[in-house]
Amino acid sequence: RSKAQPEQRISFYEAAMDEAARERRAMGRDLGVALEERQFFLVYQVQKSARTRETTGYEVLLRWRHPQRGLISPATFIPIAEECGLISPIGDWVLEEACREAVAWGLGHKIAVNLSPLQLGDVSLVDKVRSVLLRTGLPPSRLELEVTESAIIGDKGRALHILRQIRAMGVMIAIDDFGTGYSSLETLRVFPFDKIKLDRSFVNELDGRQSKAFIRAIVALGKSLDVTILAEGAETEEQLHVLVAEGCDEVQGFLFGRPCPIENLQDRSFDLPALTA
Ligand code: C2E
Ligand code: MG
Ligand code: MG
Ligand code: MG
């Protein structure tokens, strides 16, 4: 039992919160120079057909190599970038760099780029996507954008308008981390989209009966909506086996590969690197 007086405990919490806030502010400041200092890079994780194990695409994941702290997870720094108003320039960079790399390496599959909900709050995204495709020469059918359910919690009308226009270009839309939001069914009802990415937590708990029931129901819903179902976070053959049996179309996870820089992709199904000389 703590002998500390209530006031002392409160001040302990305050100190800890101050410290956390200070950390976030420091990281926010460092994020401000990360782009110009070229501290970001991209890694790619393969996506496969569940039944045939053929490659169907690659998800693009952002990495930050901090000069003092080393590698920092996007789960840590993306929320800070969103708070500091830096997600727009960072998101623009990711989109451009991914399209550029995919073309430069002659990647023979589509790439899936993550969008922050904040990026869906700005109509200029439509022109950005269009001009990046023109500038890099990536065919629109080779690009997929991943958005989470939280993207429609804000200005729903604007997000829908943006997604419809992007989709009209021939770019695909995937709903990321599906099943973890507050309004999953609402999302499916109003969002224009091509793919559902079933959250990793369902795959994690496959031995539980409930998880399987959810997967089955979502797969059935996906089939009737005529969209692709991808299961995230498959780590074992046993999980893959269940996912195939439940009718998932595609799978992504450590079983098939960790995210890695484009030049190190194990899967050599893409063409030889384009000659740049
Ligand atoms: P996400 O979009 O759901 O990405 C999948 C995450 O799951 C990645 O983590 C990936 O490395 C991890 N993962 C893949 N397979 C497995 C597996 O079999 N087991 C386990 N335990 N994990 C697996 P990562 O790269 O740390 O990214 C975390 C999140 O950060 C992403 O979740 C996404 O929400 C966000 N993020 C990453 N890159 C970007 C970006 O360029 N822009 C934005 N806005 N968000 C990004
Ligand atoms: Mg994603
Ligand atoms: Mg996800
Ligand atoms: Mg996630």
TrEMBL record:
Residues 24-273 form the EAL domain. This is EAL domain-containing protein. It comes from Ferranicluibacter rubi. The lineage of its organism: Bacteria, Pseudomonadati, Pseudomonadota, Alphaproteobacteria, Hyphomicrobiales.
